[in-house]
Write a structure and sequence with these properties.
Layout: H1 31-43, H2 48-73
């Protein structure tokens, strides 16, 4: 299965479009992360805890999207 956001895939013949799928997730922040974020606003720089949280959330949402696509396929 090819998952894409385009109507065509170079070199591929599309036989069937299953439809739109999406995957969502939300994560709760930890009070320690909020304190560190506040300090980072003062001195500047990346908030690595938030970066990891958003990366993990994106991966989980992507996995859920693939799961939804597989359900449509069956």
């Amino acid at each position: 299965m090819i998952i894409t956001t385009t109507e065509t895939v170079p070199g591929k013949n599309i036989k069937e479009i299953l439809g739109i799928v999406k995957g969502n997730t939300i994560r709760a922040r930890h009070i320690g992360s909020d304190i560190m974020a506040g300090l980072r606003q003062i001195v500047g720089g990346e908030i690595k805890g938030y970066t990891k949280m958003i990366t993990d959330s994106r991966e989980e949402a992507y996995d859920r999207m693939i799961g939804e696509a597989k359900k449509l396929r069956n």
